[in-house]
Amino acid sequence: MQQFYMPVRVVEGAGCVRAAAPLIAPLGQCALIVTGKSSRKNGSLSGVVAALTDNGQRYAVFDEVLPNPTIACVRAGAAMAREAGADFVIAIGGGSPMDAAKAIALLARQDIADADIFAGKYSPDVLPMVHIPTTAGTGSEVTQYSILTDDVAESKTSIATPYLFPKLALLDGGYMASLGHNTTVNTAIDALSHAVEGMLSVKAGEVSDLLAKESISIICSLADDIAADTLTPADRQKLLHASMLAGMVIANTGTTAVHAMGYSLTYYHEIDHGRANGLLLGAFVAFCAQHLPDRTDAILKSGGFESPAAFSEMLAGLLGKRELLTDAEMKKYAAKAITAKNILNCAYQPTEAELYQMLKISLEEK
């Protein structure tokens, strides 16, 4: 049996935020805009304010979201939403503001203790959301996940419920014009990882595979321009589209071992999430090629690669010099990863020893 579910309305193209004002109007009278500091620089915040002004809707701005948002951060945002009388949320930014916005939309309406935030027991009473991604990587604008830093688990942990799907996603690649090169690279790799992991998930199906293959094809066709920092505005719109497709994939398949291992790199070493995935993705594809040859062949064909080694070479060109880990660190992270729920999503489930070997291949000094 296969399933595919996607309740988010997506509008794409230059100027789509202002043009979508009629779609935003029915959502409420007062918006809480959740963002970081960059939205004031790239034009996205002014675009949202213009749309709200067109509609006569009030707004408050919560711009205190930092990378890898914490429970304390989203509680502060939820408090602002209640104080402002916000009845819907608009998220602007990369993965962190969008993840934070979902948790804020939940906590603004539900009284949940810190210990229960990741327990999976939520009601449908969540503020409706509009998501406007300004990076091409997370795909959070079309997923039901809010990824937060969990200091108890010493990792990143997800709130996962269909109540967190946004109502509307607005994709304007023009907001990525000022994006730094490293962020462009890391977010593109994150999107690629989502598409690849989706095809290697036990929940993969025909629809998710179609979307994943298209996402892989777009991203890999632009790999040279991503590495050289020569993307055109049209290229950035394509990347944003590919990221959205990959988000639709993991909304249905979940992520797998790459994310399970990568979370430790981000938590303990502050390695950007997308980069952490990229450091591990080549080894995971090579591992899966031994056990899931049909699936990995389809991945490689979609990206235009003849072998897992060629795929890894492309990743190496994007990543540059690798970070290195000690043997003790790799053993620790393998032990943590094997307990992650992402492992259960793997179509072929690796052992702890196999996770350790992937970490060694990826992060041991050669």
Automatic annotation (TrEMBL):
Alphabetically ordered keywords of this record: Oxidoreductase
Residue stretches in coiled coil: none
This protein's record includes keyword Transmembrane: no
EC number assigned by the record: 1.1.1.1
Oxidoreductase recorded as keyword: yes
Family matches, as Pfam families: ADH_Fe_C, Fe-ADH
Domain Alcohol dehydrogenase iron-type/glycerol dehydrogenase GldA residues, every copy: 7-172
Enzyme class name: oxidoreductase
Gene Ontology MF terms in the entry: alcohol dehydrogenase (NAD+) activity; metal ion binding
SUPFAM superfamilies tied to this protein: Dehydroquinate synthase-like
Fe-containing alcohol dehydrogenase-like C-terminal domain residues: 184-343
Name of the protein described by the UniProt record: Iron-containing alcohol dehydrogenase
